[in-house]
Amino acid sequence: MAGFMREIASKVEPFLARNGGPIILAQIENEYHDNDAGGKQYIEWCGQLATQLALNVSWVMCNGMSASDTINTCNG
Hints:
- With 76 residues, the chain is an alpha/beta fold.
- Helix content is 37%, strand content 18%.
- The chain has helices at 2-12, 37-53, and strands at 25-30, 58-62, 71-73.
- The chain has a three-stranded parallel sheet with strand order 1-2-3, covered by helices on one side.
- The longest helix is centred in the middle third of the chain and has 17 residues, at 37-53.
- It is globular, with a radius of gyration of 13 Å.
């Protein structure tokens, strides 16, 4: 997943708000509900990955567990 996200990050770079584009937020994971220790570690890893990508946008995670440095959102 890290390699995939890095590839996506490089492709969206020209479209980020800091470059005059429309992208102001991104989503790193969606509706993840595995509350065991491994699941919590995975979610925190996702949050760390989002920070490392350095896109300087708000990161969201939707309708489930959220990393400490992401915004928990809900579809609706």
